[in-house]
């Protein structure tokens, strides 16, 4: 009985942890799956596009799903992804805020300053900084990042950001005009526009 209870608890936790971070309409037939690296400057530009134009126009109709794809060349990207996943366990809105602020502060963050930057974020948001620091060693959070990365590689992802609009790829330097055309086409094909 104890094993069954433990297995059910693990299964419930794993399925909760596997839920993607979604902005917009979670149950939309139109999905924009975004493979991003929190240290990537092109991802920061795309984040701004998402906040300024895509979400205001499409949040009521489209699901924008975040996937972590920390590139090996970026020294603190994987730590940032793990930290974002930790914040997601507290509150998805906090995870979005962390992603947004991390990308907009990339020039101020380094390997040496990353922990202090996260501690300051925690202080501004009433989060226990020691727990956030300890989360970097959480194997289940690290596994989620690795799963996103491996899923991305299996889909042929090599650059960030890559946004898949119902499977159609938009890569690196993504303009509002080109991705909105893809989203509008997907909405029309889904009967949502």
Characterization of the model:
There is one protein chain. This protein is α+β, with helices and mostly antiparallel strands and 193 residues long. The protein has helices at residues 2-17, 41-58, 77-90, 92-104, 114-124, 129-135, 139-154, 176-189; strands spanning 21-24, 31-36, 63-68, 162-165, 168-171. A 5-stranded mixed sheet has the order 1-3-2-4-5. The radius of gyration is 17 Å and the shape is globular.
What is this structure's SSE topology?
Blueprint: H1 2-17, E1 21-24, E2 31-36, H2 41-58, E3 63-68, H3 77-90, H4 92-104, H5 114-124, H6 129-135, H7 139-154, E4 162-165, E5 168-171, H8 176-189
Parallel strand pairs: 2-3
Antiparallel strand pairs: 1-3, 2-4, 4-5
- What's the helix count? 8
* Biggest pleated-sheet summary: 5 strands, mixed
* Gyration radius, rounded: 17 Å
SSE string, helix = H, strand = E?
Answer: HEEHEHHHHHEEH
Strand count: 5
Features:
193 residues; alpha+beta; five-stranded mixed sheet; 56% helix; globular
Concise structural overview:
With 193 residues, this protein is α+β, with helices and mostly antiparallel strands. It contains eight helices and five strands.
């Amino acid at each position: 009985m104890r094993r069954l209870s433990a297995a059910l608890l693990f299964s419930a936790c794993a399925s909760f942890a596997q839920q993607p971070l979604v902005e917009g309409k979670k149950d939309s037939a139109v999905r924009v799956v975004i493979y991003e690296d929190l240290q990537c400057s092109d991802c920061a530009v795309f984040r701004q596009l998402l906040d300024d134009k895509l979400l205001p126009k499409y949040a009521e109709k489209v699901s924008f799903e975040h996937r972590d794809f920390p590139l090996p060349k970026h020294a603190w990207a994987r730590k940032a992804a793990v930290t974002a996943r930790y914040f997601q366990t507290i509150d998805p809105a906090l995870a979005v805020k962390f992603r947004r602020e991390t990308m907009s502060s990339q020039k101020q963050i380094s390997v040496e300053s990353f922990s202090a930057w996260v501690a300051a974020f925690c202080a501004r948001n009433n989060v226990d900084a020691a727990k956030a620091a300890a989360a970097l060693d959480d194997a289940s959070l690290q596994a989620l990042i690795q799963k996103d990365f491996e899923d991305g590689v299996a889909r042929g992802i090599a650059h960030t950001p890559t946004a898949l609009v119902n499977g159609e790829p938009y890569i690196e330097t993504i303009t509002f005009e080109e991705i909105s055309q893809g989203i509008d086409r997907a909405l029309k094909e889904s009967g949502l526009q």
